Every structure is written in C-alpha cells, then in structure tokens.
Amino acid sequence: MMNNSLNSRTFMRCAIISRAGQVLARGQLILTPIEDGAWRLDLQTDGGRHVQGGPVGEDGSMTAASQVLFDQFFDVWGMSNLTLNVTLR
Asked: What is the pTM of this model?
C-alpha cells in the first residue's frame, strides 16, 4: 500500500500540448485519495475541467494510472499523441 502521509491532494503543474505544439490546457496533476488508502492520478485544468485517471500501483508505479489518464485525454480533446509537459514546483 502507498504511504498516505501525503497531503490529501498533492500536485504538479502541467500543460497538455497537441502534435502541432498548441497548448490545449494548463493545470495540475493531482494524486487523489480513493478507497483503502490508495491514490488516483487525476488532472485538474485551470479552466475547471477534472479528468480522472487510474489508480497508482501499490508499488507507487504510475504507469497504469498514466495510461488511463491519457485514454481520457482522447475522450476530452478528441486527439491522440498529445504531450504532457510537467513542471515540478
């Protein structure tokens, strides 16, 4: 199980960028607590849109969580091959 000593919402600033280089959204990647002490990787855009990703692995891996989030990007923006640019602060 992941350590729940993180804040209830821990985040990193990010931008979603199209293949053409257009910034589609800016926002925050958020770790949202879910049942049984687990965490889910979500995106909260500055425009107010909330996109749910998948659960973070028990070992802390974000591979599956990121894939679910990227699948949701297609549903939201109707594009594939988007770039997620993360800025740590």
From this structure: 0.82
Most distant pair of Cα atoms in the chain: their distance: 41
For residue 33, what are the contacts with CB-CB under 8 A and spacing of at least 6?
Answer: 4, 8, 39, 40
Per-residue buried b or exposed e for 66-84, using 16+ beta carbons within 10 Å of the residue's own CB: beebbebbeeeeeeeebee
In 3D space, the residue among 10, 2, 18, 9 whose CA is nearest the CA of residue 58 turns out to be 2
Residue 10 has pLDDT above 80, yes or no: no
Residue whose pair of structure tokens reads 């091959």 in the numeric block: 81
Residue 25 φ/ψ, nearest 5 degrees: -160, 150
